[in-house]
Specification:
Helix content is 37%, strand content 21%. It is of the alpha/beta class. The chain is globular, with a radius of gyration of 22 Å. The two termini are 34 Å apart.
């Protein structure tokens, strides 16, 4: 295999072991500082660590190749300060999105920037062994000749599943996956660490990281406020939700949070693949199939309004291929339902805003890569 797997002590920097709290604080500030860098004194001031502690941490990071000097900055007194920056190419993570009918693979550097991408058709119902082999082959093809340090592979796919053990449950429409140890199977096939999560959780994690740095907030204006509380609704070949509460992804005790598409809103409605009738997913997709996008948007809005009322979140973000094909209609339709609900409830500051999620078609795959990257910088853990 043409890539470099440096996850053992003999091969140099052990990136996955660099997860002490203080090192993560320093790495995160170096990452957000960008190419301009940040001085050791600023790192000490912003982390609350002593200058001596910062010097020890940054010396280790420099020795491991994660950090380099970025020049000098004029000081208000004394000699100029040395500025440090993160070395993005020091490590990479693979993000793998297994959708029901296609697979998307991205290679991201330490900043989360995509440096390579592949997308091919996939049949999630072809059987576990065939899907694992196909997915592994796409990862290998992406990394062929890259010569990069790989932290591991983050895998995102429809749930429900056990995030901690990387074991799938009865994926809607694909009951044959129930109990399959996807994490261990793919790790054994590729020889690198693997993390598995639901597609909606991965996307929500990616948005939370990007949102904090781009200033996406409740008003949509650029501001220093992080995204602390939002719902990401993903409508593609299925429907699910990723929830960020208190700044972190909320998975629930059994990774069961966010099974949004299978809430019943019409008792005598059409049958759903989950076995119930009148689920939001079935109603939305049926409306889309017959060209009634406005109706699908209103149905999605009803579910979004229920979620807003239940969790009191600050923002609703929409994503997925079906939304991408009709962005304006879905934003308008979901927003109208939330506005009506706010008027009925007499909410003083108006309806919760609705926007298209950043990331586009590869947003889930990028979020999957963050399953490896975010913990390195002290993020993404609940």
């Amino acid at each position: 295999m043409a890539y470099v797997n440096r996850t053992n002590a003999e091969s140099g920097v052990n990136l996955l072991a660099l997860r002490s709290h203080n090192a993560a604080l320093v790495l995160d500030l170096l990452r957000t500082a960008g190419e301009g860098g940040i001085s050791r004194l600023e790192l000490a001031e912003r982390t609350g660590l002593t200058p001596q502690a910062v010097s020890k941490i940054t010396a280790r990071l420099r020795a491991d190749g994660l950090v380099a000097e970025a020049g000098r900055r004029a000081s208000t007194g004394g000699k100029p300060r040395t500025v440090l920056r993160l070395v993005p190419e020091a490590g990479h993570a693979v993000g793998l999105h297994l959708d029901r009918d296609e697979v998307t693979v991205v290679l991201c550097d330490l900043t989360g920037a995509v440096v390579a991408e592949r997308r091919v058709p996939l049949d999630l119902g072809a059987g576990a062994e065939a899907v694992v082999e196909s997915a592994a082959g796409e990862v290998e093809a992406l990394l062929a000749g890259a010569g990069v340090t790989v932290l591991g592979v983050g895998v995102a796919l429809p749930g429900p599943l056990d995030h901690v053990r990387g074991v799938l449950h009865r994926v809607t429409g694909f009951p044959e996956w129930d109990g399959f140890p996807l994490r261990d199977a793919l790790a054994g096939r590729l020889g690198v660490p693997v993390v598995v999560d639901k597609d909606t959780n991965a996307a929500a994690l990616g948005i939370a990281v990007v949102g904090r740095e781009s200033g996406i907030g409740k008003t949509g204006d650029v501001s220093p406020s992080p995204l602390e509380s939002f719902a990401y609704l993903h409508l593609g070949t299925g429907l699910g939700a990723g929830l960020v509460i208190g700044g972190g992804v909320h998975r629930g005790a059994r990774t069961g949070a966010g099974e949004f598409g299978h809430q019943v809103i019409q008792l005598d409605g059409p049958p759903c693949g989950c076995g119930n009738r009148g689920c939001i997913e079935a109603l939305c997709l049926a409306a889309v199939d017959r060209g009634a996008v406005g109706e699908a948007a209103r149905v999605l809005g009803v579910g979004a309004a229920n979620l807003v009322g239940l969790l009191d979140i600050d923002l609703v973000l929409l994503g997925g291929r079906t939304v991408a094909a009709h962005e304006e209609a879905f934003v308008r339709g979901v927003g109208a339902v939330l506005e009506e609900r706010a008027r009925l409830e007499g909410v003083d500051d108006g309806a919760i805003p609705v926007r298209v999620a950043p990331g586009g078609a590869r947003g889930v795959a990028e979020g999957a890569a963050q399953l490896l990257l975010a913990p390195l910088f002290g993020r993404g853990e609940d």
